[in-house]
Amino acid sequence: MLGRRLDIPLNRDSSVRFLPWIIALMVYLAGLALAGTLVLQGALERWNTSLAGTLTVQLPPAKPGGTDPLPAALNLLRATRGVISAEALTRDQTAKLIAPWLGTALSPEELALPRLVDLRVDPRAAPDLADLRTRLAAAAPGALLDDHRLWLDRLAGVVLSIEATALAIVLLIGGAAVLTVVFTTRAGLAVHHAVVEVLHLIGARDGYIAGQFQRQALALALRGGLLGLLLTVATLLGIGHAGAATALFGERVRLLPALALAPWHWLLLAVLPLFASLIAMLTARVTVLRALKRMP
Amino acid sequence: MRYGAGPEVLRDISMELAAGSFHFLTGPSGAGKTSLLKLMYLAERPSRGLISLFGRDIATTPRRELPALRRKIGVVFQDFRLIEHLSAFDNVALPLRVAGLAEEQIREHVTELLRWVGLADKLNARPATLSGGQQQRVAIARAVIGRPSLLLADEPTGNVDDEMALRLLRLFEEMNKLGTTLVIATHNEALVTRFGHARLHLENGEITQLRARERQMV
Questions:
Q1: ipTM of the complex
Q2: Model pTM?
Q3: How many beta-carbon contacts under 8 Å exist across A and B?
């Protein structure tokens, strides 16, 4: 289809030189936006699954001379249906949690640290949290039950708004690509008006003439799209490499996020240039057909 | 008809060409010969009036059926309108390619016709490298390659010497004998007189039809 002879010398137009670059740039930007969305979505899903089934109970520090609310809370929690385990964090474990912020100079005894209970629940038969909160407050006054929902919901909100922005960017890029192809096709029609008219007058159907423009647009967009894809892949691998290089303490802390793209994500990115080429081809076809309709 | 909001170029023209007829279209420059031909090869629409081609009213013929009608019409444009980046061969082959003929048949027909018009050694030449007369012959070959039912030619002998003009006119006569209807716009009175076919004379936007005379002895 791409190798067929052109009756209209479209391959000599100046648009031939810049259209692939524009498409390449657009596929590149769209690819990055898409990859960013996929990475964020993946991260959100991982947080969701790792936090589903885990709850934290926070107990106020025992007052000197007062009764420790911990045993009562643990008893209540362990007796609740749907709770798999309820383990109190030791003072050392709690100290480790705050060490990154406060250092290790202070001993936990000097601080009025709340006691934390790590709670694992069966996600399929989770206990009624409202009921559990009431009973917990009765057994251990001042106890807080944190299901991470607030944090996760806010995070999901941020991710969603970033995704919406990325989608808007991709749509804008698509719109700009369509406009670019419309303008280059119209320029081609204007430059080659005489040839188009001859073809029209010797009995070429509109589809025959449009075919010449759409083949050209497809070839140029494919070339540009593949270049854009190449740039996207190179950038993503570069970021991934840079991310790995910033890993501290083994793999626990990273300054840059890991680019966790699944195989089907890469496939989606690979479809992008094909999609762009298809849009370019259809746009060229529709533009030419509409212009030809104005000829007698 | 008129171009845009301009004055009427042609008006009150009523004529009928019998199938298989041969007409010269004459008249002073600016009389509207080219405009009349444009109406006939469907490059323009009349601002009012009726055009019927091959028994079909053009105004009511659906647009998608017009290409098939256009393929029955061969046109030799006054300015040739050859496609510059295509070789003589590809220019002549264009109507057959547009009609979807097999490349094998195209090669055979086009080569034969170009040989006939004396351009056997110019098959791969671009129009820019051809003389005016050679370009005109390519244009004529392109017009006749599809064996049209109607051949319209605008000054087809304007750039060739007398001998080639006679040769081309004979080609037209041969086609006419095979059933093609011809209208040839020309300023060449000598040719009109020599071949003696019916004449359509256009002057001041009006047309007069003169019958064919006996052909003069050459």
A1: 0.89
A2: 0.78
A3: 54
